[in-house]
Amino acid sequence: MSATLTATGPAKNIKVAEALGRNRKRSDVIVKSLCYAATGLGLILLASILATLLIRGFSGIGLSVFTEITKPPGSNGGLLNAIVGSLIQTVIGVAVGTPIGLLVGTYLAEYAQGSLLGNAVRFVSDVLLSAPSILIGLFIYQLIVAPFGGFSGFAGCIALAVIVIPIVVRTTEDMLSLIPTAMREAAVALGAPKWKMIVLICYRAAKDGIVTGILLALARVAGETAPLLFTSLGNLNWSLSLAKPMSSLPVTIYQYAGSAFDDWVQLAWVGALLITFGVLAINILARVVLRGGK
Amino acid sequence: MQQVALASASPKAISRGSNFGDLIFAGLTRSAGILVLILLGAIIVELFIGGLPAFQKFGFPFLTSTEWDPVQEEFGAAVSIFGTVTTAVLALLLSVPIAFGIAFYLTELAPQWLRRPVGTAIELLAAVPSIIYGMWGFFVIVPLMAQYVQPAIIDSIGELPVIGGLFQGPAFGTGIFTAALILAVMIIPFIAATMRDVFLTVPPVFKESAYGLGCTTWEVMRAIVIPYTRVSVVGGIMLGLGRALGETMAVTFVIGNTNRIATTLFGPGNTIASIVALEFPESQAGSLKLASLLALGFILFVISFIVLAISRILLRPRLKG
Protein backbone atom coordinates (compact mmCIF):
# COMPACT_ATOMS: atom_id res chain seq x y z
CA MET A 1 0.00 0.00 0.00
CA SER A 2 2.69 2.43 1.01
CA ALA A 3 4.69 1.33 -2.00
CA THR A 4 1.95 2.49 -4.39
CA LEU A 5 1.73 5.82 -2.54
CA THR A 6 5.44 6.56 -2.80
CA ALA A 7 5.51 5.50 -6.42
CA THR A 8 3.17 8.30 -7.56
CA GLY A 9 3.35 12.11 -7.36
CA PRO A 10 6.30 14.20 -6.31
CA ALA A 11 6.99 11.94 -3.35
CA LYS A 12 8.86 9.49 -5.53
CA ASN A 13 11.66 12.00 -5.83
CA ILE A 14 12.86 12.85 -2.35
CA LYS A 15 14.43 16.14 -3.42
CA VAL A 16 11.24 17.42 -5.04
CA ALA A 17 9.29 16.38 -1.97
CA GLU A 18 11.65 18.23 0.33
CA ALA A 19 11.50 21.36 -1.82
CA LEU A 20 7.69 21.23 -1.79
CA GLY A 21 7.67 20.85 1.97
CA ARG A 22 10.02 23.78 2.34
CA ASN A 23 7.84 25.94 0.09
CA ARG A 24 4.73 25.07 2.07
CA LYS A 25 6.43 25.82 5.35
CA ARG A 26 7.87 29.05 3.97
CA SER A 27 4.53 30.38 2.73
CA ASP A 28 3.01 29.40 6.07
CA VAL A 29 5.65 31.40 7.93
CA ILE A 30 5.28 34.39 5.58
CA VAL A 31 1.50 34.55 5.96
CA LYS A 32 1.72 34.08 9.71
CA SER A 33 4.23 36.90 10.08
CA LEU A 34 2.02 39.16 7.95
CA CYS A 35 -0.88 38.39 10.27
CA TYR A 36 1.21 39.20 13.33
CA ALA A 37 2.21 42.44 11.63
CA ALA A 38 -1.42 43.31 10.80
CA THR A 39 -2.50 42.76 14.39
CA GLY A 40 0.47 44.75 15.63
CA LEU A 41 -0.48 47.56 13.26
CA GLY A 42 -4.04 47.58 14.62
CA LEU A 43 -2.78 47.81 18.19
CA ILE A 44 -0.26 50.52 17.25
CA LEU A 45 -3.04 52.58 15.66
CA LEU A 46 -5.13 52.40 18.83
CA ALA A 47 -2.09 53.28 20.93
CA SER A 48 -1.24 56.17 18.61
CA ILE A 49 -4.72 57.65 18.88
CA LEU A 50 -4.78 57.35 22.66
CA ALA A 51 -1.24 58.69 23.00
CA THR A 52 -2.01 61.68 20.76
CA LEU A 53 -5.07 62.49 22.85
CA LEU A 54 -3.15 62.21 26.11
CA ILE A 55 -0.16 64.24 24.92
CA ARG A 56 -2.20 67.05 23.38
CA GLY A 57 -5.19 67.05 25.68
CA PHE A 58 -3.87 66.29 29.14
CA SER A 59 -1.90 69.50 29.54
CA GLY A 60 -5.05 71.54 28.89
CA ILE A 61 -7.15 69.88 31.58
CA GLY A 62 -7.82 72.28 34.42
CA LEU A 63 -10.65 73.18 36.70
CA SER A 64 -11.77 75.96 34.34
CA VAL A 65 -12.65 73.38 31.67
CA PHE A 66 -15.45 72.15 33.92
CA THR A 67 -16.48 75.44 35.51
CA GLU A 68 -16.42 77.91 32.60
CA ILE A 69 -18.61 77.93 29.54
CA THR A 70 -17.30 78.36 26.00
CA LYS A 71 -15.97 81.89 25.52
CA PRO A 72 -14.38 83.92 22.72
CA PRO A 73 -10.75 83.08 21.96
CA GLY A 74 -8.22 84.36 24.47
CA SER A 75 -10.57 84.67 27.44
CA ASN A 76 -9.96 81.38 29.25
CA GLY A 77 -13.19 79.65 28.35
CA GLY A 78 -14.13 76.13 29.34
CA LEU A 79 -16.42 73.40 28.06
CA LEU A 80 -19.09 73.37 30.77
CA ASN A 81 -22.06 74.10 28.49
CA ALA A 82 -20.80 71.58 25.93
CA ILE A 83 -20.38 68.85 28.56
CA VAL A 84 -23.79 69.52 30.12
CA GLY A 85 -25.45 69.77 26.69
CA SER A 86 -23.91 66.46 25.63
CA LEU A 87 -25.05 64.77 28.84
CA ILE A 88 -28.61 66.06 28.46
CA GLN A 89 -28.97 65.08 24.82
CA THR A 90 -27.29 61.70 25.25
CA VAL A 91 -29.38 60.76 28.29
CA ILE A 92 -32.69 61.88 26.74
CA GLY A 93 -31.78 60.27 23.42
CA VAL A 94 -31.04 56.95 25.12
CA ALA A 95 -34.10 57.27 27.38
CA VAL A 96 -36.38 57.78 24.36
CA GLY A 97 -34.73 55.20 22.10
CA THR A 98 -34.29 52.38 24.63
CA PRO A 99 -37.97 51.49 25.35
CA ILE A 100 -38.75 51.45 21.63
CA GLY A 101 -35.69 49.35 20.86
CA LEU A 102 -36.54 47.02 23.74
CA LEU A 103 -40.08 46.50 22.43
CA VAL A 104 -38.88 45.90 18.88
CA GLY A 105 -36.26 43.44 20.11
CA THR A 106 -38.93 41.65 22.17
CA TYR A 107 -41.22 41.50 19.15
CA LEU A 108 -38.48 39.96 17.01
CA ALA A 109 -37.42 37.40 19.62
CA GLU A 110 -40.79 36.43 21.14
CA TYR A 111 -43.57 37.13 18.68
CA ALA A 112 -42.26 37.35 15.13
CA GLN A 113 -40.71 33.91 14.65
CA GLY A 114 -40.41 33.45 10.92
CA SER A 115 -43.18 35.89 10.06
CA LEU A 116 -42.83 38.15 7.06
CA LEU A 117 -43.28 41.31 9.12
CA GLY A 118 -40.68 40.12 11.62
CA ASN A 119 -38.11 39.44 8.92
CA ALA A 120 -38.77 42.84 7.36
CA VAL A 121 -38.38 44.60 10.71
CA ARG A 122 -35.17 42.72 11.48
CA PHE A 123 -33.74 43.55 8.07
CA VAL A 124 -34.65 47.24 8.27
CA SER A 125 -33.33 47.54 11.80
CA ASP A 126 -30.01 45.99 10.73
CA VAL A 127 -29.75 48.41 7.82
CA LEU A 128 -30.50 51.37 10.11
CA LEU A 129 -27.79 50.11 12.46
CA SER A 130 -25.16 50.94 9.84
CA ALA A 131 -26.91 53.78 8.01
CA PRO A 132 -24.81 56.97 7.73
CA SER A 133 -25.54 59.03 10.83
CA ILE A 134 -25.37 62.30 8.92
CA LEU A 135 -28.50 61.22 7.04
CA ILE A 136 -30.32 60.74 10.35
CA GLY A 137 -29.42 64.38 11.02
CA LEU A 138 -30.79 65.48 7.64
CA PHE A 139 -33.95 63.45 8.25
CA ILE A 140 -34.62 65.03 11.64
CA TYR A 141 -33.87 68.44 10.15
CA GLN A 142 -36.58 67.84 7.56
CA LEU A 143 -38.96 66.28 10.08
CA ILE A 144 -38.61 68.55 13.11
CA VAL A 145 -36.24 71.49 12.60
CA ALA A 146 -37.58 72.91 9.34
CA PRO A 147 -41.35 72.65 10.08
CA PHE A 148 -41.16 73.72 13.74
CA GLY A 149 -39.07 76.81 13.47
CA GLY A 150 -35.46 76.25 14.13
CA PHE A 151 -32.70 74.21 15.66
CA SER A 152 -33.34 72.79 19.11
CA GLY A 153 -31.87 70.49 21.71
CA PHE A 154 -35.07 68.46 21.40
CA ALA A 155 -34.35 67.72 17.73
CA GLY A 156 -30.84 66.62 18.73
CA CYS A 157 -32.28 64.21 21.32
CA ILE A 158 -34.64 62.68 18.76
CA ALA A 159 -31.83 62.28 16.21
CA LEU A 160 -29.77 60.41 18.82
CA ALA A 161 -32.81 58.32 19.80
CA VAL A 162 -33.17 57.17 16.17
CA ILE A 163 -29.56 55.97 16.31
CA VAL A 164 -30.10 54.24 19.66
CA ILE A 165 -33.10 52.15 18.54
CA PRO A 166 -31.38 49.66 16.19
CA ILE A 167 -28.47 49.11 18.61
CA VAL A 168 -30.85 48.18 21.44
CA VAL A 169 -32.95 46.05 19.06
CA ARG A 170 -29.92 43.99 18.04
CA THR A 171 -28.69 43.21 21.57
CA THR A 172 -32.19 42.68 23.01
CA GLU A 173 -33.12 40.17 20.32
CA ASP A 174 -29.79 38.36 20.63
CA MET A 175 -30.01 38.16 24.40
CA LEU A 176 -33.65 37.07 24.54
CA SER A 177 -33.03 34.29 22.04
CA LEU A 178 -30.30 32.89 24.31
CA ILE A 179 -32.80 32.18 27.10
CA PRO A 180 -33.55 28.45 27.38
CA THR A 181 -37.02 27.34 26.33
CA ALA A 182 -37.36 25.32 29.52
CA MET A 183 -37.40 28.52 31.53
CA ARG A 184 -40.26 29.91 29.46
CA GLU A 185 -42.15 26.64 29.69
CA ALA A 186 -41.77 26.64 33.46
CA ALA A 187 -43.34 30.10 33.65
CA VAL A 188 -46.18 29.22 31.31
CA ALA A 189 -46.82 25.94 33.16
CA LEU A 190 -47.34 27.93 36.35
CA GLY A 191 -50.12 29.77 34.54
CA ALA A 192 -48.32 33.00 33.71
CA PRO A 193 -49.60 34.79 30.63
CA LYS A 194 -47.03 35.36 27.91
CA TRP A 195 -46.44 39.01 28.69
CA LYS A 196 -45.70 38.19 32.32
CA MET A 197 -43.36 35.45 31.23
CA ILE A 198 -41.46 37.95 29.05
CA VAL A 199 -41.39 40.84 31.51
CA LEU A 200 -40.78 38.91 34.73
CA ILE A 201 -38.74 35.95 33.50
CA CYS A 202 -37.06 36.72 30.18
CA TYR A 203 -36.15 40.33 30.85
CA ARG A 204 -34.73 39.39 34.21
CA ALA A 205 -32.71 36.53 32.77
CA ALA A 206 -31.41 38.68 29.91
CA LYS A 207 -30.83 41.73 32.10
CA ASP A 208 -27.04 41.84 31.77
CA GLY A 209 -27.14 41.56 28.02
CA ILE A 210 -29.80 44.23 27.68
CA VAL A 211 -27.85 46.59 29.94
CA THR A 212 -24.79 45.95 27.77
CA GLY A 213 -26.76 46.97 24.70
CA ILE A 214 -27.93 50.18 26.36
CA LEU A 215 -24.39 51.03 27.45
CA LEU A 216 -23.07 50.40 23.94
CA ALA A 217 -25.78 52.66 22.55
CA LEU A 218 -24.86 55.31 25.11
CA ALA A 219 -21.20 55.11 24.09
CA ARG A 220 -22.08 55.31 20.43
CA VAL A 221 -24.32 58.38 20.57
CA ALA A 222 -22.12 60.24 23.07
CA GLY A 223 -19.53 60.65 20.33
CA GLU A 224 -21.89 61.37 17.44
CA THR A 225 -21.26 64.68 15.72
CA ALA A 226 -22.84 64.57 12.28
CA PRO A 227 -26.49 64.13 13.34
CA LEU A 228 -26.24 67.02 15.81
CA LEU A 229 -24.87 69.52 13.26
CA PHE A 230 -28.29 70.01 11.69
CA THR A 231 -30.48 69.44 14.73
CA SER A 232 -29.16 70.94 17.98
CA LEU A 233 -26.61 72.98 15.99
CA GLY A 234 -24.39 73.94 18.95
CA ASN A 235 -24.64 76.94 21.20
CA LEU A 236 -21.77 78.98 22.59
CA ASN A 237 -23.93 80.42 25.38
CA TRP A 238 -25.31 78.78 28.49
CA SER A 239 -28.68 77.23 27.74
CA LEU A 240 -30.56 74.32 29.23
CA SER A 241 -33.70 74.84 27.16
CA LEU A 242 -34.60 71.95 24.88
CA ALA A 243 -36.43 74.40 22.64
CA LYS A 244 -33.26 76.34 21.78
CA PRO A 245 -30.06 75.28 20.05
CA MET A 246 -27.98 73.25 22.47
CA SER A 247 -24.25 72.86 22.78
CA SER A 248 -22.63 69.44 22.67
CA LEU A 249 -19.09 68.22 23.15
CA PRO A 250 -18.55 66.68 19.69
CA VAL A 251 -19.93 69.69 17.82
CA THR A 252 -17.84 72.06 19.95
CA ILE A 253 -14.76 69.94 19.23
CA TYR A 254 -15.57 70.15 15.52
CA GLN A 255 -15.91 73.95 15.63
CA TYR A 256 -12.84 74.47 17.80
CA ALA A 257 -10.48 72.01 16.12
CA GLY A 258 -10.86 73.73 12.77
CA SER A 259 -10.37 77.23 14.20
CA ALA A 260 -7.24 79.33 13.95
CA PHE A 261 -6.97 80.10 17.68
CA ASP A 262 -4.49 78.09 19.72
CA ASP A 263 -6.52 78.11 22.93
CA TRP A 264 -9.62 76.86 21.07
CA VAL A 265 -7.62 74.05 19.45
CA GLN A 266 -6.25 73.20 22.90
CA LEU A 267 -9.79 73.03 24.28
CA ALA A 268 -10.80 70.83 21.35
CA TRP A 269 -8.08 68.36 22.36
CA VAL A 270 -9.26 68.43 25.96
CA GLY A 271 -12.81 67.76 24.77
CA ALA A 272 -11.56 64.96 22.52
CA LEU A 273 -9.68 63.40 25.42
CA LEU A 274 -12.73 63.57 27.69
CA ILE A 275 -15.12 62.12 25.16
CA THR A 276 -12.84 59.33 23.95
CA PHE A 277 -11.93 58.10 27.40
CA GLY A 278 -15.57 58.44 28.47
CA VAL A 279 -16.74 56.39 25.50
CA LEU A 280 -14.03 53.75 25.90
CA ALA A 281 -14.74 53.48 29.64
CA ILE A 282 -18.46 52.88 28.96
CA ASN A 283 -17.50 50.28 26.37
CA ILE A 284 -15.27 48.43 28.79
CA LEU A 285 -17.95 48.68 31.49
CA ALA A 286 -20.44 47.14 29.04
CA ARG A 287 -18.10 44.19 28.50
CA VAL A 288 -17.60 43.74 32.24
CA VAL A 289 -21.38 43.72 32.76
CA LEU A 290 -21.82 41.10 30.06
CA ARG A 291 -19.02 38.90 31.38
CA GLY A 292 -20.34 39.19 34.92
CA GLY A 293 -23.59 37.68 33.67
CA LYS A 294 -22.03 34.66 32.08
CA MET B 1 -74.56 30.29 46.70
CA GLN B 2 -72.41 33.32 46.70
CA GLN B 3 -69.30 31.16 46.92
CA VAL B 4 -70.29 29.20 43.89
CA ALA B 5 -70.76 32.40 41.90
CA LEU B 6 -67.37 33.66 42.97
CA ALA B 7 -65.70 30.40 42.13
CA SER B 8 -67.19 30.29 38.67
CA ALA B 9 -66.63 33.97 37.93
CA SER B 10 -63.07 34.43 39.04
CA PRO B 11 -61.23 32.05 36.66
CA LYS B 12 -62.99 33.73 33.77
CA ALA B 13 -62.01 37.14 35.06
CA ILE B 14 -58.42 36.02 35.48
CA SER B 15 -58.18 34.53 32.04
CA ARG B 16 -59.84 37.57 30.49
CA GLY B 17 -57.42 39.79 32.38
CA SER B 18 -54.37 37.90 31.18
CA ASN B 19 -55.63 37.75 27.61
CA PHE B 20 -56.09 41.47 27.80
CA GLY B 21 -52.54 41.95 29.08
CA ASP B 22 -51.19 39.70 26.36
CA LEU B 23 -53.14 41.57 23.74
CA ILE B 24 -51.77 44.92 24.88
CA PHE B 25 -48.19 43.70 25.16
CA ALA B 26 -48.23 41.91 21.82
CA GLY B 27 -49.81 44.99 20.24
CA LEU B 28 -47.18 47.26 21.78
CA THR B 29 -44.23 45.21 20.57
CA ARG B 30 -45.77 44.78 17.13
CA SER B 31 -46.43 48.48 16.72
CA ALA B 32 -42.85 49.26 17.84
CA GLY B 33 -41.72 46.90 15.08
CA ILE B 34 -43.92 48.66 12.55
CA LEU B 35 -42.54 51.98 13.80
CA VAL B 36 -39.06 50.88 12.67
CA LEU B 37 -40.42 50.18 9.19
CA ILE B 38 -42.12 53.57 9.18
CA LEU B 39 -38.86 55.17 10.29
CA LEU B 40 -37.00 53.83 7.28
CA GLY B 41 -39.83 54.84 4.97
CA ALA B 42 -39.95 58.31 6.52
CA ILE B 43 -36.19 58.80 6.08
CA ILE B 44 -36.41 57.91 2.39
CA VAL B 45 -39.53 60.01 1.81
CA GLU B 46 -38.31 63.07 3.74
CA LEU B 47 -34.95 63.10 1.96
CA PHE B 48 -36.63 62.62 -1.41
CA ILE B 49 -39.20 65.37 -0.81
CA GLY B 50 -36.45 67.68 0.43
CA GLY B 51 -34.37 66.99 -2.66
CA LEU B 52 -37.32 67.16 -5.06
CA PRO B 53 -36.77 70.81 -6.13
CA ALA B 54 -33.23 69.91 -7.17
CA PHE B 55 -34.33 66.77 -9.01
CA GLN B 56 -37.01 68.79 -10.81
CA LYS B 57 -34.71 71.66 -11.70
CA PHE B 58 -31.74 69.64 -12.93
CA GLY B 59 -33.37 66.34 -13.85
CA PHE B 60 -31.22 63.32 -14.57
CA PRO B 61 -28.07 65.38 -15.44
CA PHE B 62 -27.85 66.19 -11.71
CA LEU B 63 -26.11 62.83 -11.35
CA THR B 64 -23.54 63.55 -14.04
CA SER B 65 -22.94 67.29 -13.65
CA THR B 66 -19.71 68.37 -11.98
CA GLU B 67 -20.95 71.91 -11.26
CA TRP B 68 -21.26 73.21 -7.72
CA ASP B 69 -21.80 76.94 -8.02
CA PRO B 70 -23.93 78.53 -5.28
CA VAL B 71 -23.80 81.94 -7.01
CA GLN B 72 -25.21 80.74 -10.33
CA GLU B 73 -27.34 78.15 -8.50
CA GLU B 74 -25.91 75.34 -10.59
CA PHE B 75 -25.51 72.10 -8.68
CA GLY B 76 -24.43 68.60 -9.65
CA ALA B 77 -23.64 65.42 -7.79
CA ALA B 78 -20.94 63.83 -9.94
CA VAL B 79 -17.89 65.08 -8.03
CA SER B 80 -19.11 64.05 -4.61
CA ILE B 81 -20.43 60.70 -5.82
CA PHE B 82 -17.04 60.09 -7.42
CA GLY B 83 -15.26 61.10 -4.20
CA THR B 84 -17.53 58.96 -2.05
CA VAL B 85 -17.04 55.84 -4.16
CA THR B 86 -13.29 56.33 -4.71
CA THR B 87 -12.45 56.90 -1.05
CA ALA B 88 -14.65 54.02 0.09
CA VAL B 89 -13.26 51.54 -2.44
CA LEU B 90 -9.66 52.61 -1.78
CA ALA B 91 -10.30 52.28 1.95
CA LEU B 92 -11.55 48.72 1.35
CA LEU B 93 -8.45 47.82 -0.67
CA LEU B 94 -6.26 49.07 2.17
CA SER B 95 -8.24 47.62 5.06
CA VAL B 96 -9.35 44.16 3.89
CA PRO B 97 -5.88 42.52 3.94
CA ILE B 98 -5.13 43.97 7.37
CA ALA B 99 -8.55 43.05 8.76
CA PHE B 100 -8.09 39.54 7.38
CA GLY B 101 -4.71 39.30 9.07
CA ILE B 102 -6.18 40.37 12.39
CA ALA B 103 -9.10 37.94 12.12
CA PHE B 104 -6.72 35.11 11.16
CA TYR B 105 -4.50 35.97 14.11
CA LEU B 106 -7.43 36.11 16.54
CA THR B 107 -8.95 32.79 15.44
CA GLU B 108 -5.90 30.60 14.68
CA LEU B 109 -2.62 32.08 15.82
CA ALA B 110 -3.11 33.91 19.10
CA PRO B 111 -2.62 31.99 22.34
CA GLN B 112 -5.90 31.50 24.16
CA TRP B 113 -5.17 34.01 26.93
CA LEU B 114 -4.36 36.77 24.43
CA ARG B 115 -7.47 36.39 22.28
CA ARG B 116 -9.85 38.31 24.51
CA PRO B 117 -7.63 41.32 25.29
CA VAL B 118 -6.44 41.77 21.70
CA GLY B 119 -9.98 41.27 20.38
CA THR B 120 -11.26 43.86 22.84
CA ALA B 121 -8.56 46.33 21.83
CA ILE B 122 -9.51 45.96 18.17
CA GLU B 123 -13.19 46.43 19.06
CA LEU B 124 -12.35 49.54 21.06
CA LEU B 125 -10.79 50.94 17.89
CA ALA B 126 -14.31 50.75 16.44
CA ALA B 127 -15.75 52.60 19.43
CA VAL B 128 -13.56 55.70 19.05
CA PRO B 129 -15.87 58.49 17.81
CA SER B 130 -15.34 59.48 14.19
CA ILE B 131 -14.55 63.10 15.05
CA ILE B 132 -11.54 61.86 17.00
CA TYR B 133 -10.32 60.05 13.87
CA GLY B 134 -10.77 63.35 12.05
CA MET B 135 -8.61 65.27 14.53
CA TRP B 136 -6.03 62.51 14.72
CA GLY B 137 -5.92 62.40 10.93
CA PHE B 138 -5.68 66.15 10.58
CA PHE B 139 -3.03 66.79 13.25
CA VAL B 140 -1.00 63.56 13.07
CA ILE B 141 -1.44 61.80 9.73
CA VAL B 142 -1.68 64.82 7.42
CA PRO B 143 1.71 66.33 8.45
CA LEU B 144 3.25 62.85 8.21
CA MET B 145 1.82 62.40 4.72
CA ALA B 146 2.89 65.86 3.56
CA GLN B 147 6.46 65.64 4.83
CA TYR B 148 7.46 62.03 4.37
CA VAL B 149 5.01 59.63 2.77
CA GLN B 150 3.70 61.56 -0.21
CA PRO B 151 7.07 63.03 -1.37
CA ALA B 152 8.60 59.55 -1.14
CA ILE B 153 5.77 57.99 -3.14
CA ILE B 154 5.78 60.79 -5.72
CA ASP B 155 9.54 60.33 -6.22
CA SER B 156 9.34 56.56 -6.54
CA ILE B 157 6.01 55.23 -7.82
CA GLY B 158 5.14 58.61 -9.37
CA GLU B 159 7.98 58.16 -11.86
CA LEU B 160 6.61 54.88 -13.20
CA PRO B 161 4.68 54.87 -16.47
CA VAL B 162 0.89 54.33 -16.46
CA ILE B 163 0.20 54.02 -12.71
CA GLY B 164 2.64 56.82 -11.92
CA GLY B 165 0.04 59.35 -13.00
CA LEU B 166 -2.09 58.42 -10.02
CA PHE B 167 0.68 59.36 -7.60
CA GLN B 168 1.67 62.82 -8.75
CA GLY B 169 1.00 66.41 -7.85
CA PRO B 170 1.88 68.59 -4.88
CA ALA B 171 2.11 66.86 -1.49
CA PHE B 172 -0.55 68.71 0.48
CA GLY B 173 -0.95 65.90 2.96
CA THR B 174 -4.73 66.13 2.64
CA GLY B 175 -6.69 64.65 -0.25
CA ILE B 176 -8.42 61.52 -1.45
CA PHE B 177 -5.62 59.13 -0.50
CA THR B 178 -5.36 60.43 3.06
CA ALA B 179 -9.14 60.30 3.45
CA ALA B 180 -9.11 56.69 2.25
CA LEU B 181 -6.32 55.90 4.70
CA ILE B 182 -8.27 57.28 7.68
CA LEU B 183 -11.41 55.49 6.49
CA ALA B 184 -9.41 52.27 6.22
CA VAL B 185 -8.29 52.60 9.85
CA MET B 186 -11.90 53.21 10.87
CA ILE B 187 -13.37 50.18 9.09
CA ILE B 188 -10.59 47.68 9.91
CA PRO B 189 -12.14 46.81 13.31
CA PHE B 190 -15.62 46.30 11.79
CA ILE B 191 -14.40 43.98 9.06
CA ALA B 192 -11.96 42.19 11.38
CA ALA B 193 -14.63 41.57 14.03
CA THR B 194 -17.13 40.25 11.46
CA MET B 195 -14.50 38.00 9.84
CA ARG B 196 -13.47 36.65 13.24
CA ASP B 197 -17.07 35.81 14.16
CA VAL B 198 -17.56 34.14 10.78
CA PHE B 199 -14.31 32.15 11.00
CA LEU B 200 -15.39 30.86 14.40
CA THR B 201 -18.46 29.24 12.82
CA VAL B 202 -16.32 26.71 10.92
CA PRO B 203 -16.86 23.31 12.57
CA PRO B 204 -13.62 22.31 14.34
CA VAL B 205 -13.80 18.79 12.90
CA PHE B 206 -13.23 20.20 9.36
CA LYS B 207 -10.09 21.98 10.47
CA GLU B 208 -8.91 19.03 12.53
CA SER B 209 -9.25 16.73 9.51
CA ALA B 210 -7.11 19.08 7.45
CA TYR B 211 -4.49 19.35 10.18
CA GLY B 212 -4.60 15.57 10.45
CA LEU B 213 -3.65 15.32 6.78
CA GLY B 214 -0.59 17.43 7.52
CA CYS B 215 -1.79 20.83 6.35
CA THR B 216 -0.04 23.92 7.62
CA THR B 217 -2.10 26.61 9.39
CA TRP B 218 -2.19 28.74 6.26
CA GLU B 219 -3.30 25.79 4.14
CA VAL B 220 -6.13 25.07 6.56
CA MET B 221 -7.13 28.72 6.29
CA ARG B 222 -6.93 28.79 2.51
CA ALA B 223 -8.43 25.40 1.75
CA ILE B 224 -10.99 24.98 4.55
CA VAL B 225 -11.88 28.17 6.39
CA ILE B 226 -12.04 30.63 3.49
CA PRO B 227 -14.05 28.44 1.10
CA TYR B 228 -16.44 27.54 3.93
CA THR B 229 -17.03 31.18 4.92
CA ARG B 230 -16.54 32.94 1.57
CA VAL B 231 -20.05 34.37 1.24
CA SER B 232 -20.11 35.74 4.77
CA VAL B 233 -16.63 37.22 4.43
CA VAL B 234 -17.85 39.19 1.43
CA GLY B 235 -20.84 40.24 3.54
CA GLY B 236 -18.50 41.54 6.23
CA ILE B 237 -16.51 43.47 3.63
CA MET B 238 -19.72 45.01 2.31
CA LEU B 239 -20.59 46.03 5.86
CA GLY B 240 -17.27 47.88 6.02
CA LEU B 241 -17.98 49.47 2.64
CA GLY B 242 -21.34 50.70 3.93
CA ARG B 243 -19.61 52.30 6.89
CA ALA B 244 -16.99 53.95 4.70
CA LEU B 245 -19.54 55.41 2.29
CA GLY B 246 -21.38 57.40 4.93
CA GLU B 247 -18.51 58.43 7.18
CA THR B 248 -18.63 62.18 7.67
CA MET B 249 -16.52 63.87 10.30
CA ALA B 250 -13.23 62.09 9.74
CA VAL B 251 -13.38 62.62 5.98
CA THR B 252 -14.36 66.29 6.29
CA PHE B 253 -11.15 66.98 8.21
CA VAL B 254 -8.72 65.46 5.73
CA ILE B 255 -10.12 65.31 2.20
CA GLY B 256 -9.33 68.90 1.24
CA ASN B 257 -12.92 69.80 0.34
CA THR B 258 -12.68 70.89 -3.27
CA ASN B 259 -15.42 70.35 -5.81
CA ARG B 260 -13.20 68.98 -8.53
CA ILE B 261 -12.59 65.46 -9.75
CA ALA B 262 -8.98 64.87 -8.82
CA THR B 263 -6.76 63.30 -11.46
CA THR B 264 -4.30 61.98 -8.87
CA LEU B 265 -4.87 60.19 -5.59
CA PHE B 266 -3.13 63.00 -3.71
CA GLY B 267 -5.49 65.62 -5.08
CA PRO B 268 -8.24 67.14 -2.94
CA GLY B 269 -11.88 66.25 -3.43
CA ASN B 270 -15.07 65.82 -1.46
CA THR B 271 -17.65 63.19 -0.62
CA ILE B 272 -21.41 63.41 -0.31
CA ALA B 273 -21.20 63.32 3.47
CA SER B 274 -18.43 65.91 3.68
CA ILE B 275 -20.10 68.38 1.31
CA VAL B 276 -23.37 68.08 3.23
CA ALA B 277 -21.61 68.67 6.56
CA LEU B 278 -19.69 71.67 5.23
CA GLU B 279 -22.24 73.41 3.03
CA PHE B 280 -25.36 72.79 5.06
CA PRO B 281 -24.75 75.51 7.68
CA GLU B 282 -24.33 78.02 4.83
CA SER B 283 -27.58 77.15 3.09
CA GLN B 284 -30.80 79.00 3.65
CA ALA B 285 -34.02 77.18 4.37
CA GLY B 286 -35.95 76.63 1.16
CA SER B 287 -33.01 77.43 -1.12
CA LEU B 288 -32.09 75.37 -4.14
CA LYS B 289 -28.73 74.66 -2.53
CA LEU B 290 -30.41 73.07 0.48
CA ALA B 291 -32.59 71.01 -1.84
CA SER B 292 -29.47 69.89 -3.71
CA LEU B 293 -27.82 68.85 -0.45
CA LEU B 294 -30.91 66.87 0.54
CA ALA B 295 -30.92 65.30 -2.92
CA LEU B 296 -27.29 64.28 -2.32
CA GLY B 297 -28.38 62.82 0.99
CA PHE B 298 -31.07 60.82 -0.80
CA ILE B 299 -28.52 59.48 -3.28
CA LEU B 300 -26.15 58.52 -0.45
CA PHE B 301 -28.99 56.77 1.34
CA VAL B 302 -29.87 54.76 -1.75
CA ILE B 303 -26.22 53.75 -2.31
CA SER B 304 -25.62 52.72 1.29
CA PHE B 305 -28.99 50.99 1.55
CA ILE B 306 -28.11 48.79 -1.42
CA VAL B 307 -24.65 47.99 -0.05
CA LEU B 308 -25.91 47.29 3.47
CA ALA B 309 -28.81 45.21 2.17
CA ILE B 310 -26.43 43.01 0.16
CA SER B 311 -24.19 42.70 3.21
CA ARG B 312 -27.11 41.58 5.40
CA ILE B 313 -28.34 39.07 2.86
CA LEU B 314 -24.84 37.55 2.58
CA LEU B 315 -24.21 37.53 6.33
CA ARG B 316 -27.61 36.36 7.56
CA PRO B 317 -27.36 32.62 6.96
CA ARG B 318 -24.05 32.29 8.83
CA LEU B 319 -24.35 34.79 11.67
CA LYS B 320 -27.80 33.96 12.93
CA GLY B 321 -28.50 36.70 15.40
Can you tag this structure with a few keywords?
heterodimer, A: 294 residues, mainly alpha, MetI-like fold, 13 helices, 0% strand, flat, disordered N terminus, B: 321 residues, two-stranded antiparallel ribbon, 10 helices
> What's the tally of helices of chain A?
13
Number of strands of chain B: 2
CATH class (first level) name of the largest domain in chain B: Mainly Alpha
Strand content of chain A: under 5%
Proportion of helical residues of chain B: over 70%
Structural class of chain B, please?
A: mainly alpha
| Biggest sheet character of chain A | none
**Count of the separate structural domains of chain A:** 2
What's the average pLDDT of chain B? 88
Question: Helix proportion of residues of chain A, in percent?
Answer: over 70%
Return residue spans of chain A where pLDDT drops below 50 for at least 5 consecutive residues: 1-6
The first-level CATH class of the largest domain in chain A is given as Mainly Alpha
Tell me the name of the CATH homologous superfamily of the largest domain in chain A.
MetI-like
CATH topology of the largest domain in chain A: MetI-like fold
